DNA sequence: TTGAAAGCGCTAACAT
DNA sequence: ATGTTAGCGCTTTCAA
């Protein structure tokens, strides 16, 4: 910048101003600076700026569960949207062997404008570290039970989604629906189940069985299906808490247990990951409004970066049910609403 | 830091030295500084340091094709390994609507120690931008045809891998094997095909047909399979350039064309993504040595960050063939090597 | 072994 | 509208 200023016969201050749209510089001066900068290949140094302004244009993304395809999809879209808004994404991944906490410390020292938590539960120590660093936290998709008053969460309306799935399964003929849970202590799990259960009961069915897979993985879904779908008392419909779980269930049902889907068992998922649309799964699912979630998130990040404060609380965005073959009503039965009276 | 120094009655210089293992400070002084820093929650600011040392501890990761599960897996492992080594990963994603070029400019202004290209082809303008910024580039998994002399690539030994798949398919009874290509202009595609073809010819088979799917996606594999597996002249074995392609092929073959795998058609893939081990796919594949690739990459990044120069050129690491049901030899036929003479 | 001082690339009053 | 000056948090000579 000094060089550029010398080259142009101006002071560094003037040159600096040319790079700030809101600064007060003569249009001609700005044009001259910018064009010369272009020629010399000069780009202002965001690190130096960050030291003074404390605005890094860095967004820290905390991610776990890379093995659930929903998260790579969400990450790709979020990162792309951030790029477009002129933010840089710093990625931290948590895994069994790598707790977020350590990496989070490193991340926070770069003074991200905000931390976005995708799937990480972000323990209280981690949350405290963010608070101490003055970094606001935005939760996407999941939120902790004890959401700090100044933290914000943007999630799918899981309760409503669960209810919507219940409606669909019941209309497709389900009489003994069950719910398959992934990781028990997650908000997604609790909310989707609650919505599903409430609606089942409201429509006159017994409370759906709660099957515990343990994690949101194909393997867990597969294993849980093997143990819960044997015997005569098996459910006739299964709402899996997410699609990757449902994929495991579907394979177990068809290949290992010889069940026909949807004739013997209706299966629905949640998320609408790419695989749900593959012909071999053809999975009915509640599609997450990823586009809207990401757009809203970036909006909030920009607001926060401008110095605004995050509205605390949880924003719930409704998803859309996508009916597919895994719950197609067999033999064109009419929806048997009348049976609710029994 | 100034505060810390005042608190301790030392100069900032001494305090600064305490944070550099190689700096010359009295052991007692260092201990005092570090323990007090811990108490006060002080962490040195990497941004300020970066301005002077030009060492940011930032690694820029350029990524495309988030829809091929191989890349999320690779990204997760790379990021985790970088974290452990004290680096921070800055992620830039390319997509049809979002060319890397724009985001790369933003990224480079943060002075990453190195740029890691995962799947991005990184056009010549982009490569030039890196060169201009003095940022070395490390290619993972794929490398450009015209690899710059100072650029390095770490990839699976695709040629050898292709040959290994050929061996396996031939031993499983293949007589008219074919190759399904994804994106034509990629090194992975070219090398895997070359290895496969050479070995087929060497073992007395006609040159394998080259089927062009166009992209490395499930959908492309599915569509290409539908058009190439009809009719009597169809291949009896298909080596798909990667697993996600193979998944599409498998589904098309079984569900749409009524073919039995492996009885009517042998199918092999490449990568060994999670899905390949699912019972519904049970896909034989060449497993990429991701652990070794990542380890070597981090090693090189550390070397480069220490001021060392990257050894230019391509490092090829052999993969491991994982036989599964999609190529299990039907009816226990002995491998008919003798037919090679015909 | 430590301190003083200069400076990294930039911003932000304050003057002019 | 532009220049001057001080300083962000840190490193790094150079002297002591």
Give an account of the 3D structure:
Chain A has 3 domains: 2-44, no CATH class; 54-157 and 289-320, Response regulator (Rossmann fold, 3-Layer(aba) Sandwich); 160-288, 3-Layer(aba) Sandwich (Rossmann fold). Chain A is elongated and about 85 Å long. By secondary structure, chain A is α/β, with parallel strands linked by helices. The N and C termini of chain A lie far apart (80 Å). In chain A, 41% of the residues lie in helices and 17% in strands. The first copy, chain A, has 12 helices and 12 strands. The longest helix of chain A has 16 residues, at 187-202. In chain A, helix 5 crosses helix 12 (290-305) and helix 8 (158-171) packs across helix 9 (187-202). In chain A, the strands form 2 sheets. A 6-stranded parallel β-sheet of chain A has the order 2-1-3-4-5-11, sandwiched between helices. In chain A, strand 1 (58-63), helix 5 (70-84) and strand 2 (88-93) form a beta-alpha-beta unit. At the A-B interface, helix 4, helix 5, strand 2, helix 6 and helix 11 of A face helix 4, helix 5, strand 2, helix 6 and helix 11 of B. Strand 2 (88-93) of chain A pairs antiparallel with strand 2 (88-93) of chain B. Chain A binds a DNA duplex (16 and 16 nucleotides) through helix 2 and helix 4. Chains A, B: Pfam families: Peripla_BP_3 (PF13377).
Short description:
By secondary structure, chain A is of the alpha/beta class.
What is the secondary structure topology, with strand pairs?
2 copies of one chain form a homodimer.
Chain A: H1 2-8, H2 12-18, H3 27-40, H4 46-53, E1 58-63, H5 70-84, E2 88-93, H6 100-108, E3 114-118, H7 124-133, E4 137-140, E5 152-156, H8 158-171, E6 177-181, H9 187-202, E7 209-212, H10 218-228, E8 237-240, H11 243-256, E9 266-271, E10 284-287, H12 290-305, E11 313-317, E12 320-322
Parallel strand pairs in A: 1-2, 1-3, 3-4, 4-5, 5-11, 6-7, 6-8, 8-9, 9-10
Antiparallel strand pairs in A: 10-12
Helix pairs in contact in A: 2-3, 5-12, 6-7, 8-9, 10-11
Chain A binds a DNA duplex (16 and 16 nucleotides) through residues 1-2, 10-14, 16-17, 20, 24-26, 29, 44-45, 47-54.
Organism (chains A, B): Pseudoroseomonas ludipueritiae
InterPro entries (chains A, B): HTH_LacI, LacI/GalR-like_sensor, Lambda_DNA-bd_dom_sf, Peripla_BP_I
Region (Disordered) (chains A, B): 321-342
